[in-house]
Every structure is written in C-alpha cells, then in structure tokens.
Amino acid sequence: MSRRGVPYRLIATDLDGTLLQSDDTVSDRTRAALAAAVEAGAAHIVVTGRSVPWTRPILEYLDYRGIAVCGQGAQVFHAGEQRLITSVTLDRDVAELALSKIEAEIGPLALAVSRDGLDGEVIAAPDYRKPGEGEETAHPLPYVAMNEPSDFWAAPLTKVYIQHARLGDDELAEVARRVAGDLVGVMMAGEGVVELLPLGLTKATGLALAADRLGVRATEAIAFGDMPNDTPMFEWAAYGVAMENAHSELKAVADAVTASHDADGIALVLERLLAG
Length: 276
Known about the structure:
Blueprint: E1 10-13, H1 28-39, E2 43-47, H2 52-62, E3 67-70, E4 75-78, E5 83-87, H3 92-106, E6 110-115, E7 122-124, E8 144-145, E9 157-163, H4 169-180, E10 184-190, E11 193-198, H5 203-214, E12 221-225, H6 231-236, E13 239-242, H7 248-251, E14 256-257, H8 265-274
Parallel strand pairs: 1-2, 1-12, 2-3, 7-8, 12-13, 13-14
Antiparallel strand pairs: 3-4, 4-5, 6-7, 6-9, 9-11, 10-11
C-alpha cells in the first residue's frame, strides 16, 4: 500500500477493545496511521455496538465528521450533520416475549434497555451490573435508574441488555439463542454485555448501508474488531483483523490477528499496508 493507491477503500473499526484503549483514549500513533490511510484515499467508518448517545462523545473527541454505524447496526449516524440516517427499533412486544422464554428456561434476568434516538437513554434495573462502573475512563457510560418495570417499555428501543446471576456471558448468549433466537438477534458485545436485537440486525447491516452511501463495495473493505458481535462485519468485509485481546470466537474467523488495542494493533496493520 502506498499513498498513491489504497487497496482498501474502507477501514471499518469497532470502538471498545479495538480503536479505543482501556482508558477510552486513542493513541497518537493510531490516530496518525488512520489519518495517513485517509489521506491515501481510504474512508474510515466507526462501527460500534454503542448507541448514538454513547458514541457521540467519542466521535467528538476524535473530531470525527463522517458516517458512524451505531447500536450494532441499528443506527447509521452522520456525525458532521448530527442526524440519524437510519434507525431500526426492537419490537417491544417481541422483546417481552423473548425475555419470558429465556427466564422460563434459566430464571430471572437483570435488564437494561437502550432507547432510540439521538438522545436515547440507557435505563438499567437496580440489579444490572454496569460494565466499566468504577473504572477510570475518559468517557464513562451514563445510565438512568429504572424506577418501575414499566419504564423499560415506555419508549421505542434499539436493544435490551441481559445478565444472569449464575451464567457467564457465553452460556447466557447460547441459551438466549436456543430458546429465543427465532424472535430476536442475540449478540455478545463485551464483558457482561449480552444484547437482544431486532432479528437479523448486525453490524454488517449498518456497515453495508454506510458503505453504499460512500460508493464502496465489501470487496474493498478491511475491518478491525474484538468481540463476537464483530463476526458479521468480518464476514462482510474482504479482510477481517482481530485484536490480540479479542474473544476466541472472533479470532477463529479472522483473516489475521494484530496486537492488542493497548499496543496500537490497528496502527501496526495500517503502517505495514502504507509501507507497501
């Protein structure tokens, strides 16, 4: 790869565990590598499980003005214009039915829900363990406490977060897919983060829409990620690169594995490509 021509016209990066370091910052080296790739003709698209309200502070920190894919593909957001291009919501009756089937199998779940829209809040039950709570990060995730169970269903949703007191993330996701996979999509997006989504929705859904707006094909895309929810993105793109800190399920389907998010894994790949 040289600055005269870029084999990948689109660089898709997950945020948490991929582009972002453990403290929610992006290193100067990774910023420089992305800037050089963009200067050479590639487009950079952020593709994240975070909903738009949780993504906007990161995009502002990055001075990102392009299209971002948020909410596991549910929301395609134009950062420069501060508007939603598309937004897919989860049918609340279907979500309640899926939850009832899962709880009939394994008992009570701890819940949180992500509301739709540019300012959609994440409402969490008292027993929901908030990932990252208490950690020192540049961009802590805001939650709103649930006052009554009806709060969950009072407004359109993009997703439902589920946790179980006994089952780990992999086991919980497996059970949810087995008993409710005909109703909702089930994704594991991080430690303590198992999500119920509109059926058929993935990061690849939103990324394909964003790429189409840019006139870029899947065969021209390279993707970086760290969790199983990045698998559809890897399947869509021509080349998928897992971080060293990635879940084993994603590493198994990746074309390559780079260094961790704390060791400039994205920059290492882009620098090699830029060097030809």
